[in-house]
Amino acid sequence: MRQRGQSSETTAASKVATVAQADGNPRTTQRDEQATIPISWALVIVVSFSICIRAAVSLSPYSGENTPPLYGDYEAQRHWMEISLHLPPSSWYQNSSDNDLAYWGLDYPPLSGYASWALGKIVQFVEPNAVRLHSSRGFESPLSRAAMRFTVLLSDLLVFFPGLVLASYSVYRSPVSHHIFDTARTTQLVPVVAFCATLPALILTDHGHFQYNGVSLGLFLFAMAFFILRKEALGAASLCLSIYFKQMGLYYGLAVFSFLVGRLWRILRRSGPTSAFLFVCKLISSILLVSVITFWPWLSEKELLVSVLKRLFPVSRGLFEDKVANVWCSISVLIKMKALLEPEMLIKMCATCTVLTSLPFCVAVAVKPSPDRLLLSTGGCALAAYLFAFQVHEKQILLPLLPLCVLYGKHPLISFWISIVASMSMFPLFQRERLLSAYWATLLIHIALVSSTCRFKGCSQTVYKRIALKVALVIGVFLHLPLLVLTPPSNMPDIFVLLNTGYACANFCIIYLCMVYSVWTDSTLKCAASLRIELFSLA
């Protein structure tokens, strides 16, 4: 009987091996096949869980709640729905009696206006008074609030989560199977998606403060996925859509351009000038098609197009907005750059510093255009822009945050580091808008998820890096305390805020240097993370 049992087991094993060889994947096992479905269900659980977090945060106060006359970003988004629903697109950027640009005039690209029109239809269906022309200014009601909050959740479901899953799959996919739920290498897929889906900074900004950053970032993630999967025309189109939703996406442009130049050079060397020419034609055609469709209502007259550009790039707002954790705000305690230089010189200085600090990433990704370097370079260029560009606001840290966090499975320390520091850098904003409960809750959930899904091993000095990271985070939390319990001196009302943002800026500068080293060595901070999925049973 024992021999017969062993024989049957051997036969079953040989059948599995035969099927594996027939599939062309000798590593495929019966266990892998059984794990395929649970991974797909795990992604559903992750998205559902992150939606629940977002829904809970959306119960918190929003930007400008009950604070007339200008209110805040919630009122800005509602007002854009009002304008886009009642005025033709050609009038969105024109000052008129129906569109007072001094009152939250639209200053995002046309795709954001189109989205406001589509999502405004939902709000109009639920609460028509919330988007009536003129009479809806400052309109606040429980029903309209629920409708507005729902539109942010819906935009995440339609754009952000699909882009996140596709981008994560493109980075961690199996080289053999093209199925998105293949388990040869995508055991990292679920922890990476869970990490990015629970980023406190993004959740609090969109679902607490109230914005639609998930749309532009989701389109950017689609672009990264298409570039990595060698669908460059689709990647260029997606990146254009991301920029045409929020113009800050231009900060990714230098890295993506360098990446495509590197690919073009390889096509030219391997396939000749004809293939290279066709490659360029595909990219140009894709960009022109998306641009013409997006800006069509403003192409009939030069003045209309100029009015759009003036709204998108307002140089009169100054070097930075509020207290932001970048270099110019941090040194403003000692050096008042705005008093020393004229606005034109400030713009040139910021542009020069941004380009120079972006060069290491641009050159690296052009020399070796790999998926990891593409994400490191886009994140690095966006971080350089955050630190040195002109007209930066605190929420702009989301731009370098996303591409780096997609690399959580390969650079876990740096991903976790920038994730927490990005949240801490916006603590003064969240405190001002009464989001402290949501802040601590999302932060603790995110840290708990990292603790349960990531184990670092096989990296020299990993222990010291982890200790240094913990010390840095503890200091950041400690610097929150003065804002919570102390009253600043009357002659230095912003001292505690500047301590928070200045410390975050120092962390961002160190992260920037680590990224420069990483993109050139492909080794530092890449601690062979062993991602184990304890929250989701895959066996």
Topology:
Elements: H1 2-23, H2 30-57, H3 73-86, H4 110-126, H5 142-172, H6 189-197, H7 200-210, H8 213-228, H9 232-245, H10 253-271, H11 273-295, H12 302-312, H13 327-331, H14 337-340, H15 343-367, H16 371-388, H17 398-406, H18 412-425, H19 427-432, H20 436-453, E1 454-455, H21 462-478, H22 480-485, H23 495-521, E2 530-531
Antiparallel strand pairs: 1-2
The percentage helix is: 55-70%
Largest sheet report: 2 strands, antiparallel
| Low-pLDDT regions | 1-37, 456-461, 523-539
Main sheet: strand order: 1-2
Give me the count of strands.
2
Radius of gyration: 25 Å
How would you describe the shape?
globular
Count of helix runs: 23
Instruction: Classify the beta-strand content into a percent band.
Output: under 5%
Number of domains: 1
- First-residue to last-residue Cα separation: 29 Å
Q: Strand-and-helix sequence, N→C?
A: HHHHHHHHHHHHHHHHHHHHEHHHE
Give average pLDDT, whole number: 86
Which structural class best describes the helix and strand composition? mainly alpha
Descriptive labels:
539 residues, mainly alpha, two-stranded antiparallel sheet, disordered N terminus, EC 2.4.1.-
